[in-house]
Each structure stands twice: as C-alpha cells, then as structure tokens.
Design a protein that fits this description.
Distance between the termini: 28 Å
Bound molecules: NADP nicotinamide-adenine-dinucleotide phosphate
Strand order of the largest sheet: 3-2-1-4-5-7-12
Radius of gyration: 19 Å
Order of helices and strands: EHEHEHEHEEHEEHEEEHEEHEHHEHH
Largest sheet: 7 strands, parallel
Helix content: 25-40%
C-alpha cells in the first residue's frame, strides 16, 4: 500500500514509518519543522513538509502522494505541559485533532483514499464510575474537568468524525519508550507525586507496540475504535514507584489532594485519584496484535535502562504532574 503518514517525525510516527516499510508499504511522511525532512527520509519515507492547519496544502499534499491509506499521527505536544492550564497546553494539538482531522478527511475524499487511521487516546478518557478498566464500548467521561474541556472535546470530535467516515480510531495509552517521554523529567525530579491514595488508573503502551498495532489496523476495515494499551492497567501508586526505580530516581513523594490541587489543578488530582484505564482485549482479538512489552512492569526497566544512571537530581517543592492525556 501507499501510505501517507501525517506526523511522521513525531514520537509515534518515527516508530511507525520503519515498521510500515518493513511490512512492504511505501510511505510519504509529513513533518512540520523544516529540519525534520532528513530525519523522515532516513526513516525510509518520502518527506513532505506540511502544516495540517492549512487545508489547501493538505489536499495538495495528499493528492500528490495518491496514497491508499492515511494515518494521522500529528500532535503538538513537545515542550512542557501545564496541567493547571491544560487546554492552553493542548490547544494546538486540539486544533490538529479537529481542523487537522477535517482537512485530512476532506483530502482523503478528494483523493479517493479508502483507509483512514487516526491517533486518539485511551487513558483517563472513560467515565469515572464503575470498573477501573474500560472497553471501547464503555461511555467516555460525560463530565470532564473544566480545565480539560477543549482537549477532551477535540478527542471526542476526532473519534466521531473518523468513525463517521468509516475510519479507524486508535485510542493509545500513555506512550513510553523514548528518551523524550513526557514523564521522565518530572519523575526524575520528584515533581510527580502519588496524589491521595494514588488510586487513579493509567494505561501505558510502548511506542514499538503502538506502532505495530497501527500497521495491523491498516489491514482492517473501519469504522472501528481500538484501545491500544498494554495488558496491565494499574493505579498510580503501583506504577509510579516502578517508573522511578527504572529511571534511577528516588521514590515518588506523596501529596494530599489539596496540595496537588493547589500546585497542579483539578485535572492532575483527577488523573491521580479517579481516572480509569483501558482494556486491549478487542485489539488483541480483532487485529491479532501481539505485544512485545505486555506490561510496563518489565517495559519501563527495558526502555529506560540506557538512561537510568546519573540522575539523582531533585527539585524543590511539590509541583505536581500527572501522565499526559493526549
Ligand atoms: N498517547 C500519548 O501518551 C502521547 C501522544 C502523543 C504525544 N505524546 C508525547 O508528547 C511528546 C511530544 O510528542 P512528539 O515527539 O510526537 O512531538 P509533537 O510535537 O507532538 O509532534 C508530533 C508530530 O506532529 C507534527 N506536527 C506538529 N504540528 C504540526 C502541524 N501544525 N501540522 C502538521 N504536523 C504537525 C510534528 O512535526 P515536526 O516534528 O516536524 O514538528 C511531528 O511529526 C512525547 O513525549 C510524546 O511521547 C504522548
């Protein structure tokens, strides 16, 4: 297949392109930053510089590439996330998930592209009632924390328009497996405490496993939604000490809810105490997906062994962060 990957230079895109090539596909890979063309080329794709927020440019790029499939992996999450002003931090990404998705779907229509796969998010998305691990059929959180309303609405929009157009939505867990993973610095600096009882559940996914599921999804017809998470949804009080150890950091601090609320806002408190994880049963069954890293319990240690030494740094007061819900 000829595959058009929007966001080929990103965390997932850069794992995905080599796996697509290995599976026999030809890839056109987009990047936003001019300096990333060479990176995309080295991954094995034909690079195209593209701003997904320019609809005409998107149509031109897709028509020129005449792909059989489009995979939307563009986000704008590099840099610090401010959990207190969550929607502000996610604004650009929310635009990529709404306007960017609209542009790619319009381009797919114009170019007669039948297959469409898009990045969504699973961890901390589902309703904060009932069981702690949710399937794709379970309801999403009907009452998101106010600071996250735009970001959650953008994800919901993407899920709806992509499946409405017959495409496949991949609700990934929290990515890990790269040197720039968002949790590394806060955990090393002990700025990410266990909030309250630490009962909020997270779902993780190693980037290589996420890319493998994405390659498999291309072979399937939509509309469909799959949680692309590992086997081991777990509460913060379990995974955070394991992550700290894997990074060679000191154990996480503990923070009462009021303190977390003060320093990091309600979204961080929710993620630390109430959020739900996701089940991968459907993706394993329907996509015949096999994980190389079925649980973060071993995955963190393997992924972070190269960077686990020489990081005894510690920062001051308990600024609080939670896993990035993207
Ligand atoms: N599920 C998750 O946990 C999840 C999901 C996404 C990201 N993250 C995390 O967020 C951090 C940053 O992610 P990242 O490294 O992938 O970087 P990123 O800045 O989010 O960029 C992702 C991709 O989107 C492209 N892009 C950005 N703005 C664009 C625009 N306006 N039009 C078209 N393409 C655009 C980027 O191009 P350029 O690189 O050329 O700018 C890149 O190819 C990482 O730690 C990652 O793990 C986590």
């Amino acid at each position: 297949m000829r595959v058009f990957v929007a966001g080929a230079s990103g965390a997932l895109g850069s794992r995905l392109v080599p796996q697509l090539i290995a599976a026999g596909h030809e890839v056109t890979g987009t990047h936003r930053s001019p300096g990333n063309a060479e990176r995309v080329r080295r991954l094995g794709a034909e690079p195209v510089q593209l701003d997904l927020l320019n609809p005409d440019a998107v149509i031109d790029a897709v028509v020129a590439a005449h792909p059989d499939a489009i995979i939307h992996q563009a986000t704008a999450l590099a840099g610090d996330l401010d959990f207190k002003h969550f929607d502000r931090s996610f604004h650009q990404t929310s635009l990529l998930r709404t306007q960017g998705t609209d542009s790619l779907l319009a381009a797919a229509k114009a170019a007669g592209v039948k297959r469409f796969v898009a990045q969504s998010y699973a961890s901390a998305r589902y309703a904060r009632t009932g069981g702690m691990v949710k399937t794709e059929d379970d309801p999403l959180d009907p009452d998101p924390i106010p600071a996250t309303r735009e970001a959650t609405a953008a994800l919901r929009y993407l899920d709806e328009v992509v499946t409405g157009a017959g495409g496949i939505v991949l609700r990934y867990g929290v990515f890990y497996g790269a040197a720039n993973d968002g949790l590394i610095e806060p955990v090393r600096k002990r700025m990410f405490p266990i909030v309250g009882g630490g009962a909020g559940v997270s779902s993780f996914i190693h980037l290589d496993d996420a890319a493998a599921a994405t390659v498999l999804a291309l072979e399937h017809r939509g509309p469909a939604i799959y949680n692309i998470v590992d086997d081991d949804a777990a509460p913060v009080r379990e995974w955070l000490p394991v992550l700290a150890k894997a990074l060679g950091a000191k154990p996480p601090r503990r923070a009462p809810r009021w303190m977390a609320r003060l320093f990091a806002g309600e979204a961080a408190v929710m993620m630390g105490t109430q959020s739900r994880g996701a089940s991968n049963a459907k993706a394993k069954r329907k996509l015949d997906w096999k994980l190389h890293h079925p649980t973060w319990r071993e995955g963190f240690a393997v992924a972070y062994a190269p960077i686990a030494s020489g990081n005894e740094r510690e920062s001051g007061p308990a600024a609080v962060m939670s896993p990035s819900p993207t």
